[in-house]
Amino acid sequence: xxxxxxxxxxxxxxxxxxxxxxxxxxxxxxxxxxxxxxxxxxxxxxxxxxxxxxxxxxxxxxxxxxxxxxxxxxxxxxxxxxxxxxxxxxxxxxxxxxxxxxxxxxxxxxxxxxxxxxxxxxxxxxxxxxxxxxxxxxxxxxxxxxxxxxxxxxxxxxxxxxxxxxxxxxxxxxxxxxxxxxxxxxxxxxxxxxxxxxxxxxxxxxxxxxxxxxxxxxxxxxxxxxxxxxxxxxxxxxxxx
Length: 241
Prior knowledge:
The protein has helices spanning 17-29, 45-50, 56-60, 68-71, 95-104, 144-161, 176-193, 201-214, 219-239, and strands at 4-12, 32-38, 63-65, 77-82, 92-93, 109-113, 130-133. It is of the alpha/beta class. α1 links the parallel β1 (4-12) and β2. The chain is elongated, with a radius of gyration of 19 Å. The model has no long low-confidence stretch (mean pLDDT 86).
């Protein structure tokens, strides 16, 4: 896989065209493969292009999506950026170690960035298997364009300093949308069985997401698991008749 073409920068509900332009410029400068946007509010391509000299092609070729699932389609790794602590027990990267990690394992990767006013919500993190945190002083205020620029620079530095390897077993890794299907169906069966009674659904979902990511599930393995879950679901419904 060449350079950083396997990286998809996903802007969730971005609010200011100028920040989109700055993000596009960083994407072009560092050879990142794709810009995707989920429900950009009042997006003005011309204003974005004004902030993205020599990078208009990134804006012109951007993907416009209605859901995060659609935006990360095809990715086998999903990482969410955050400027504040989270209750989810997800692994946390700094920009530097993320750059090295992605360079050492160059699988299709989507990196999520939240809106300027509030960042990513907990619901936005549903498909994320790890977090990217920007260390700051007590003044923690990084705008969207700066966050993408810092991330792109860290990815490029990691790529330049690391000899990438692509293990054979990673080639057939199930993409994020397939893992999402598995997790959603598993949660439905757990709910029907009563397992979620008195338990936190987000915590259970987060645990399943991390397990699915850690085990590098293949398409075939996901299909086997979905078949098992379907059978359990059928049995539970039969018992309740």
